[in-house]
Design goal:
The protein is built from 1 helix and 2 strands. It is mainly α. A two-stranded antiparallel ribbon has the order 1-2. It is rod-shaped, with a radius of gyration of 24 Å. The N and C termini lie far apart (68 Å). Bound molecules: zinc ion. The site of zinc ion has 8 residues, from loops.
């Protein structure tokens, strides 16, 4: 398996710390990987909350329609 360099797009072995082609630093710090995983989790949670909010809004609209019909 190879990992493409983000600068020159040349393939490198995944464990490489510097690109074999352009010699730039391509190592990703573990803290950044952890941060990314955390952000992905938060994004998934925000998406769920958004869906829930949309469902609540739709329920409120439906209720409002019903009460308008009654009056
Ligand atoms: Zn490179």
């Amino acid at each position: 398996m190879t990992a493409a360099c983000p600068f020159c797009a040349q393939p490198n072995v995944p464990q490489a710390l510097v690109c074999s082609s352009c010699s730039r630093d391509i190592a990703i710090p573990e803290s950044l990987i952890a941060e990314r995983d955390d952000l992905i989790r938060k994004r998934a949670m925000a998406g769920e909350e958004l869906e829930q909010a949309k469902a609540e809004l739709e329920a409120l609209r439906r209720r409002q329609r019903i009460s308008l019909r009654r009056s």
